[in-house]
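=== Structure Prediction Worksheet ===
Name of assembly: unnamed complex
Input type: mixed (protein and possibly other molecules)
Chain count: two
Listed entries:
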Amino acid sequence: MAASLQRTLGPFNINRFLSPPKQACLRYINGPTVDLSHSIHAPSLSDPPPSPQHDRRSRLPSDFLSSLRARHPGLDVSINPYDLDSHGRGESHHPTAAPDAVIRPTRVEEVRDILTACCRERRVEGEDLPIVEIVSVIPYGSGTSLEGHLQFLQRAEDEGSPGADEGEIKDIPTSCFTVRDDEANAYKKVRIKRKGGISVDMCNFQFIGEVGDDAFVRVGAGVTRNALNEALRHTGMQFMVDPGADATIGGMSACAASGTAAVKYGTMRDNVLAMTAVLPPTTILSANDEATASNNATSKVVNLGCNALKSSAGYNLPALLTGSEGTLGVLTEITVKLHPLPAYVLAASCAFDDLHCAAEAVANIRMMGVPVSRIELLDEMSIQAFNQSLIMEGCGDGGEDDAGALRLKPMELKPTLFIEFASHSEISAHEDLSAAKNICVADFGGKNFVSAADESTRHSLWAARHRLYYSAIALRADGGDSDSPTAQSTIVTDVCVPLSHFADIITDTANNVRESGVVGPCFGHAGDGNFHCILPLKKNDTKEYRDRVTAIIENMINRAISVGGTCTGEHGIGYGKKKYLAKMYGEGGVLMMEALKKSIDPWNIMNPGKIVDNDSYGGHDIVTEN
Amino acid sequence: MKILVPIKRVIDYAIKIRVDPTKGAQGVQLSNVKMSMNPFCEIAIEEAIRLKEKTTAEVVAVSIGPKQCTETLRTALAMGADRGIHIETKADVRGDYIDMQPWGIATLLKGVVEREGGVDLVLLGKQSIDSDCGQTGTLLAGLLNAPQATFASKVDRGDDGSFTVERETDSGTEVIKLKPSAMPAIITCDLRLNTPRYPTMPNIMKAKKKPVQTISLEDMVKELGLNLDEVLTPKNEVIEVYEPPPRKEGEMVGDVMELLAKLKEKGLVA
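=== Predicted Assembly ===
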């Protein structure tokens, strides 16, 4: 195995990538609850005094925050427990795992210096060996991620156990340090300690460039997609990737966001042209290296990609960072593609007796080349969720939506397609609609095909789809009691399969849900073969119920992989889906991902524990102490 | 129906306003700052377009300001206005952040209404987001002796030429009817009246060809027989502009007793 890999990957030292994985069992720590009965000291903006009553002890190196603030006076640093908690979670069921500080930089130089400070050597009075302190970093956008991307995982050794404070003793090549203080020896014995984590919140990166006559714009990583489109409202162009949430462009790039518009405009992978990123340090800042000049910063700022729509110039680095989930660096600015606002839009919906037929209709519409700008499929349970939400809002057969007096009526309890057609011309939009209608009704038994052109009717036609997420959670709500499911207790999972298998897989999953007796509406971005299952959970759910839910998810993913699909179409790997990577790609693929991670982030500073593991020490052959 | 919509070019609503110390006591940083149509003016344009779509109407946008106002007028044309009138001021007329004041603007607009002739309705934003004066619409109605309704959240036109307007007030919604009159109805628009459309590329292209008449402020004043000094002289003087003081860090207290003690100390509680 090693030999064949060596042939494929070349003459560099393969052994470091084949070292046996450490015994680290990655587990997370639930965020501590802030107990208000304790006396809470006013948190100072320098390092917190170790207070025995403080629920949470900062794991950061004692001078980490103060040295950064000395370098950048006015740097926004927060250790407020609520701030920390909110930066240790996204919008998923994954439990909160908070950082030790939240930093909100305003300039790329601050980001560079923050990352440099995350990999330092220190000599401490009374310690026998020099210490190498590694601090984890997770970049933060809007906090809408769905697979635990924002959680600060900790390894078992980092906490509580003997040796946790002592770190691990390793011999590190002196070339890993910025200053070689001992020319004679090739190795240096140090104690390596992981010292907590910081959230780098990109909210201050709000730059929006001029659009001019081109179809792209440069934006700061903290700009949300709604703010961007508002700023573009008079240019006739819009940023078309729509994941539902008001995510930041940086977050959307890092997680390769997608959504309902992907069937026409592609995902982030198709809409990112260029970016500026700050890479994590590959060398350790030596204890006697002040790094006062900017060229001593071990972290590097890189500009990737270009503004041309096509380029064959070298490795596709923006593509590598798009979807890297914060594991390879911090994005500070991104150039994204824009598309013209369609001149004419039509919306339609069509009910089917059978989910399988509805899904087949979609595949057919795509294979026949009928252009659609959105095509979504909701199963019966999703429609039921919508109808129930109308009842709960007290509008039996017609209700007001907040978008200005839409009369919403319950829909027929059947799997339903929601389609949108957009074109530069009214005639061609109507032609696309007729072609799709023909396929749905004549070939696949669709009933009640309705369409609309004006905005408010289009809005009410699509209401069931727009309200789906919260109405699905509310399916298990019991009159608003404290035990009802919330977004934080709901599992939203997703898979994507080739179109030829879409009908089978979504039908299997919906049947699985029904037969298991759980609540799990299925819906999908059907034109891409991508569908989700929303599984709300309650605090008092039995283990048996949760096991049934887990089984459904496992089945769905395994089936998807078995037909050449993916364990995640949009939401990403985070830490919950790492186990599926080997199933999808085999060992070689995973090793290649680990090789990339180890070469770009050898000290595992960036979002450790997500996508792949990096248990090496700086990616080098380390002579382990016996 | 002929609808006149005065629009104002202001600092974009999403930009954080900075005080410019070099401009003395009154300066707001205007250089390299994104400028856009006042959001309430956008709502007024949108309402005019919607009325035009329901009946037949000509929508005329008018703006008073430096040469960049033509861009603002092009946005109005892209949204659906038929033509524009730009009363161009010299760059240095726009001095403090209030620029030309409502009295001067209303005086000019009265002249524009009379010069146009046959104007049935003037739709304005209820206020501009830079000066927040909220006076131009009402002053114009007074100068014209015209019926007016402010803070409109719904506008309906009757077949007899009357306008039924729902107004948002602090105590609820008021519905009033503006009787048909020789003078145009003056309606100022509030936030909930509509959501302005985003113009599409074809409309933006078409807008480039729609006519915009540019006339200098001096020439317009002469043509209207007005007094330039009266139009330009401010009736209010801006004494000072300053940013709100930065928020002070809160004081953490240990428990309710300490909170009560501190509140008493600060004289906030007896």
